[in-house]
Design goal:
557 residues, mainly alpha, 84% helix, 0% strand
């Protein structure tokens, strides 16, 4: 009996340590992603300050959306979902030379195939733009500007595809920080272009916004380079090869084709939104784009961070046949997604005005643009938990070599989105488009969750459901308190700041966001949310280490 108790205790301690390690890795990725997203917001501020929301920004957003759509479909989305499980298996079961040969074959094939796609995309860019944004024809010069910037940004697809492979390799080696930090350099490249290339082009008599298109290529090159340098430190060297008969490459391609369809829902829905928004008033596409970028902040911080850590872990557990650990990983990942994204949803909705005003309301971006972007942000924020959860569940199916379910879920989501778009856009304009996309992503999540439960029966559905309900209750309480504090107290303090609205908004958010986090932890502990206690324990452990390091440093001095 004592031996059994000792075994149970050892297992509990081991699982607790694994869960703590999982949360810590998510924290590292989240921190690196946070830095990236901050620079992403600086990029958007630069963009909004220089160009506002109108004809030129609509043209750039539509132009960049085309290679961006292909990036999410073929590069960062489907490629990562197909590549990481295969590469992780090679790393666990095969030699280093075989593993590196697989990476070389995949990168060489990508450069070849995507290079052909880019050439075709540049050649047919006029037809693509006229089909994607037919409403641009109503504004002279808008279509032509979009076509030019589409041609410039298309090669970005090659850069980001190779960067996605590098990211998958580093994650499989347990290196999470650099891949998560790499997009920071993309944003830096864009910002530098905004303050250099744009002004040079203006001086030469060209439209300044074309400089942002060149910035896409500059930033993409920087994002790829930093990850390759990190891989070189691990001993990897890329060598181009025409050996496209590699067994692992064939498996990745086999997984990638349905994975592309399975992960397509979000980007196809965004494409449909763009197509419909191009027929609305000038600025509609920009409002959707600015709000979508804001909504992507918590997804990048939390959804992508959790997914980056989860996918290699799930792949290794499947390869080793560790079913119990697999169910615990998925349960923990989903619970953590709820803990981090549901409060973010209420935070974005209730504090949308100071957030948007602080980040975007500069230069040509007016207060009216803030209000309009806020409506779109509400629509997108509703589906935040669905967006993040799909990033966990869809790749999990490909780790099982299961391709049908994500494909069917994606198709159902796209059909639902089209149906809702045409209904909601008539009454709610661009807000209806954002809301339809959110409802669609929640549907996608529900479908995937039902089928992952059928495959992994040990997943604790009740635990996940209770976590969802408790976290939603705590987040709602937090959101309501924050709203009444801002609307009933802080808003009356605006005159104190003598018209410096940026300083006022910064003050509000610097006080309300930490207060919201404190309330969330307080309500969460009262409601006995396990994930809150786990996260609090990790933060306390990290704080103790920092304090001890500081004390030791002071003693040595």
């Amino acid at each position: 009996m004592t031996a059994n108790n000792e075994n149970i205790t050892e297992t509990t301690v081991e699982r607790s340590a694994e869960k703590s390690g999982f949360v810590k890795n998510v924290g590292y990725v989240g921190f690196a992603t946070f830095i990236s997203r901050i620079f992403g917001l600086l990029r958007e501020q630069t963009f909004a300050g220089l160009f506002g929301a109108g004809v030129f920004t609509d043209a750039f957003n539509a132009a960049f959306r085309i290679p961006n759509l292909l990036r999410d479909l073929f590069a960062e989305g489907a490629l990562s979902s197909a590549f990481v499980p295969t590469f992780s298996e090679y790393k666990s079961l095969k030699t280093e030379s075989e593993t590196n040969a697989l990476a070389n074959a995949v990168i060489s094939a990508l450069i070849t195939v995507i290079g052909i796609i880019c050439v075709a995309g540049i050649y047919f860019s006029e037809d693509i733009v006229r089909y994607m944004a037919p409403g641009f024809e109503n504004t002279p010069g808008k279509t032509e500007l979009t076509i030019l910037m589409t041609k410039i940004t298309f090669p970005f697809l090659i850069l980001v595809a190779v960067a996605a492979v590098f990211m998958g390799m580093l994650n499989s080696y347990g290196r999470f920080f650099i891949p998560a930090f790499a997009p920071t350099l993309f944003n830096v490249g864009m910002i530098l272009s905004g303050f250099s290339v744009c002004y040079v082009l203006k001086y030469l008599g060209y439209q300044p916004i074309i400089g942002m298109a060149w910035g896409v290529l500059i930033g993409g090159s920087m994002q790829m380079a930093i990850q390759y340098l990190s891989l070189k430190k691990l001993g990897y060297r890329f060598k181009f090869t025409f050996n496209f008969r590699n067994e692992g490459l064939a498996r990745i391609v086999k997984l990638m084709i349905p994975a592309t369809i399975g992960l397509a829902a979000t980007q196809v829905n965004v494409f449909i939104n763009t197509w419909l928004a191009s027929r609305l008033a000038d600025g509609a596409i920009s409002y959707l784009n600015y709000s979508f970028r804001l909504m992507q902040l918590p997804i990048g911080l939390f959804g992508v961070a959790i997914s980056s850590v989860t996918l290699p872990l799930i792949s290794a557990q499947i390869a080793k046949g560790e079913k119990d650990k697999l169910s615990e990983t998925i349960t923990s990942a989903l619970s953590l997604v709820f803990l981090l994204t549901i409060p973010s949803t209420f935070g974005l909705i209730f504090l949308k005005d100071p957030i948007i005003s602080l980040l975007y309301e500069h230069g040509r971006f007016t207060h009216a643009d803030t209000i309009n972007t806020g409506y779109a942000l509400i629509g997108y924020s509703v589906g935040l938990v669905g967006y993040a959860a799909v990033k966990i569940l869809a790749p999990a199916f490909y780790a099982f070599n299961e391709t049908r379910i994500p494909v069917l879920a994606s198709i159902a989501s796209v059909i639902c989105n089209i149906f809702l778009n045409f209904i909601l856009v008539q009454k709610y304009s661009y807000f209806g488009l954002a809301l339809a996309t959110s409802i669609t992503m929640i549907l996608n999540f529900i479908i995937l969750f039902v089928f992952i439960k059928l495959r992994i029966r040990a997943i604790a559905v009740k635990k996940i459901a209770f976590a969802f309900v408790k976290i939603t209750a705590a987040s709602l309480l937090m959101g309501v308190v924050l709203f009444y504090l801002y609307d009933g107290v802080f808003i009356h303090m605006r005159p104190i700041f003598w018209g410096f609205d940026t300083l006022f908004n910064l003050f509000c958010l610097c006080v309300l966001i930490p207060l919201g986090v404190l309330m969330l932890f307080t309500f969460g502990e009262r409601l006995k949310v396990e994930e809150v206690n786990t996260l609090a324990a990790v933060l306390r452990d990290k704080s103790k280490k920092i304090m001890n390091s500081a004390i030791n440093l002071s003693k040595t001095e």
